[in-house]
Design goal:
- The protein has one domain: Rossmann fold (3-Layer(aba) Sandwich).
- Helix 3 crosses helix 4 and helix 7 crosses helix 8.
- The strands form 2 sheets. It has a 7-stranded mixed beta sheet. It has a two-stranded antiparallel sheet with strand order 4-5.
- The chain is globular and about 65 Å long.
- It starts with 6 loop residues before the first strand and ends with a strand.
- By secondary structure, it is α/β, with parallel strands linked by helices.
- It is built from 8 helices and 9 strands.
- Strand 4 and strand 5 form a beta hairpin.
Length: 312
């Protein structure tokens, strides 16, 4: 007997039918500009998957606004509706950044023209100096390598409706947080918060103190999923692509990898995947998949091949 699931499962064709009359507001050229290295998403994928998702999110945003108005009337409150926050989680190289950027563009083009901001958790990593000092460079990307207090402070300020909330900026070129550089988020209608561990839960305190999770601030969450071996192939392909592009810049943290042979580079990529990224996936990221409202599962060609939506 099959175990009951908290999710409704949809084929791609079933999911695509839910887009109804949602207009496609992106062009092929815009999609090419938005996609990340190694993630060959096409306009047809946007049409099949992301238009239905945009319509679903629109209904959630509308319901949340309605609940806010009803609660305000009931409690005789005055104030501005706080941003609708969407969390996007999943392992490295699975296409989280592309999904986040595609959604940002689609949502900002709704008829109401909402203000949509996108923040990634990379900027909330502890600086390399801290990671070195605490022997955490080999655990970069693991939960302990992030400044969780800073993340919670940022999201609490966003949800409190504060103006000009600053998020730290990360440089993938130098592989470190950029000192003194911030991105300002000023009361958006929707905030997309993307990162590998955004659905992570932390250890509960023994004394019964209150400990918020990052996902407590989310109104909707999405997990981008794929089979382990497929993600490994994508990671190595991306690494080799960076070896021939960004790694060649002298200021790149990984410049040394552009100087080795192709076979040596392949071996380095496989070691980084197995020792760090696969371990993080199994220990910390994959266990959070069941906490997402929506799971988009991808096949080897990077396209979504099935969708799971949590039951209400």
């Amino acid at each position: 007997m099959q175990e009951p699931s908290p999710y409704l499962q949809f084929s791609v064709d079933e999911w695509a039918a839910f887009r109804n009359d949602t207009p496609l507001t992106l062009t092929e050229e815009e999609v090419r500009r938005l996609r990340a290295l190694g993630d060959p998403i096409a306009l047809d994928e946007v049409r099949r998957i992301y238009l239905s998702l945009s319509r679903l999110l629109a209904s959630h945003v509308e319901a949340t606004i309605g609940l806010f108005k009803e609660r305000s009337r009931f409690l005789h409150l005055r104030g501005q509706k706080t941003p609708f926050v969407i969390g996007i989680a999943g392992p490295v190289a699975v296409g989280k950044s592309t999904t986040a950027r595609i959604l940002k563009e689609l949502l900002s083009r709704w008829p109401a023209s909402p203000k949509v901001d996108l923040i990634t958790t990379d900027g909330f990593l502890h600086p390399n100096e801290y990671l070195d000092k605490n022997d955490l460079m080999g655990r970069k990307g693991f939960p302990e390598s992030f400044d969780r207090r800073q993340i919670l402070d940022f999201l609490s300020r966003i949800k409190a409706g504060e103006r000009n909330v600053q998020a730290p900026v990360y440089s993938h070129l130098v592989y470190d947080v950029v000192p003194g550089e911030f991105k300002t988020v000023d009361q958006p209608d929707i905030l997309i918060f993307e990162g590998i561990n955004v659905l992570q839960v932390n250890d509960l305190p023994k004394q019964g103190d209150s400990v918020p999770f990052v996902s407590d601030y989310f109104d909707f969450s999405i997990y981008i999923d794929a089979d382990e071996k497929i993600i490994e192939d994508w990671y190595i392909t991306r690494f080799m692509g960076l070896r021939d592009t960004a790694f060649r810049k002298p200021e790149s943290f990984f410049h040394r990898y552009s100087q080795v042979s192709e076979d040596a580079a392949q071996a380095i990529a496989l070691d980084l995947w197995s020792r760090i990224n696969l371990a993080n996936l199994r220990e910390n990221i994959l266990p959070t998949r069941q906490r997402a409202n929506l799971v988009l599962h991808k096949g080897a060609d990077h396209s979504v091949d099935r969708v799971a939506l949590r039951r209400l």
